[in-house]
Write the structure tokens for this entry.
Amino acid sequence: MTTHDTVAREQKAASFSRKLGIAVICAVLVVTLVIMKPAAPDKLILLTGPENGAYHAMGERLANELRQRGLETEIRVTGGGFDNLGLLAADPNGTVAFAPSNMENVVDDSVDTDDLVSLGSIAWEPFWLFYRAEHEISDVPDLAGLAVSTGPSGTVVNFIATEMLRVNDVLDRVEIPASDGQTPENVKESLLDGRIDAAFAAGSPAAPIIRDLLAREDVSVLSFERAAAYEARFPGIATITIPRGVIDLGQDLPSGDLALLSVTTNLVALDDLYPAAVPLLLEAVAQADTRRRLTTKAERFPSGDNTSLPLDRAATRYYEHGEKGLGKVLPYKVTRWLNHLGFVVLPLLALTVLLIKIVPVGMKIWGRVHLMSMLKVLEEVEKGSAAGADPKELLDKLDDLDRRTATIFVPRATLHDYIDIRQFMHDMRERVADSAGTRDVSSSGDH
């Protein structure tokens, strides 16, 4: 093999190595950037509650904040807190839901809540009992004999209202209309036109329906004088006070201090929700929570307090240290891809480069193995020639070795050794052939 052939082969091997490395790196980039999507969700599904309800209004505010921060958010109307936990337990990552604290303790056994976590409480959720002003009602037992709406089934208001009627021994002495298709709007209409006498409701004092009912002269609202007793009987229930006139001083709404019962609305998710999305959610909650302070309870939402489900680890870090990192200054869409780049793409590229560096070493070892096998055959031929073996057999071995090794791929690192061995093989063939010729001459002289 000439020097020119050697150089050409080296150049070919080097070019192959470069092309292979570039191809591998490009393949990794395609897989990680195009095929493998970031673990952070690009869309959030928010399970709220019935349309025109408190959860739905809260969801609209939160969704608007999230969209402004770069996270597409889809609002899904549901039956309420009970319904949300059941749907959430069966939904994929990227879904969060509103649910009252302690709801997991009263849902149906078919709902698995083991994988659910709370991202924190985001609002007080007061309970109201509105009734037509012509009735004399000072406490829940006075509802006996009246038509009372307990809210749509699957909502926290329905559960608490039913429990309050039960513990006051009037559950079987009130008329409860069918809850199918109930909305806060048609419950309000039923109360105003006299089809029902009283209605339990839940929602912020600033909610339009709550405010409208408080302003009606023909509708009264009950202040729960035994609120502390209910708080003691129902885990997760807190007593709050709505001060007189706090909603509207000009109209004096409410017209007196109101003692109400309340749970907290929690933001609930599966425990595999991507951690980087949690601070974004909680910051959006903080911005969306623009309500005035309408109760005597300290309100600072979101909060890690008043949660009954385990608090998510990313949420715990947020409440302890606040939002950190690039999420404070960059849109979510940017940080989502930067996280993907930092945690997936760059490590894979580093691993790929390392492998590319290792490949030549492996190829060198592979080449050495082939060289050793060639040397072994040459050694056998040389020993056979010295021992006087049949030259024809030795030449057949050399021809077979030549055919097998003439076109094999040789790593650049072992190319010189390969050329030297093949040169030695050709020299060996000449020696064996000369030996065969000498033997033939000697044989002819004997005759």
Q: What stands out?
A: Residues 3-16+359-446 form one domain. Confidence is low (pLDDT under 50) at residues 441-447. The longest helix spans residues 332-386.
